[in-house]
Please model this.
Amino acid sequence: MEVTSRFRFLEGASGSDIAEGPSSFKAPEVSTAMTTTTKIEATHTEDEAGPADVTGLSRRPKRADARRNYEKLLVAARAAFAENDVDASLEDIARRAGVGIGTLYRHFPTRQALLEAAYVDEVEAMAAAAADLATLPPWEALSTFLRRFMQYATTKRAIGQELMAYVPADADVFAACRHAITSAGEPLLRRAQDAGIVRPDVSFTEVGRMVSGIASVRVSNAAELERIFELALDGLRYRQADDGA
Model:
């Protein structure tokens, strides 16, 4: 299914779809202007609370009280969708956040607006984490980022899947988030390659497909998935060819 395959790099789509064919993900050069029908109100700068607006799509309020409610609503929405409750009502999400439905609608006038905000917020948190990881040794920085990426792809699939009911797979929200993750991960991969730790013949696009594919594997317990992930990481390491081979 082509629509699903375009979306796999970030969300992993459904487990069976990923296993059936390669993703068509490419690291695009995109405008970060949001052109979907629903825009999230308020503004945000890097000096304010919350992750930096690396996608150009996040809109956090300036006032501290409004920003607190905004963040509580995002936390509640992520929790609802993480439970695979993609049909959670906006009223239920408002109750989880401890705010009135009017407060929710002031920040997110439609369900699509809330879905986009929750989707973008997690990506921007990952991008912010990548900047912090740059102070770690090259392999530790890269492997930590990829582990967080796998956790994201595993737990946030439901948000992306429901969002695709409102916007096409090539919508700006998906393109901008792919661009943000690629921009965050590529320097970490390149630094590890320059240090001679990671094989030089792989791109971040390939690594991203690998990790999102692992995240889609159905296993009986988390230890199995961790084992598969560790094997994949080991395959990234550079090893000099054995002259006697």
Remarks:
- The radius of gyration is 19 Å.
- Residues 1-49 have pLDDT under 50 and may be disordered.
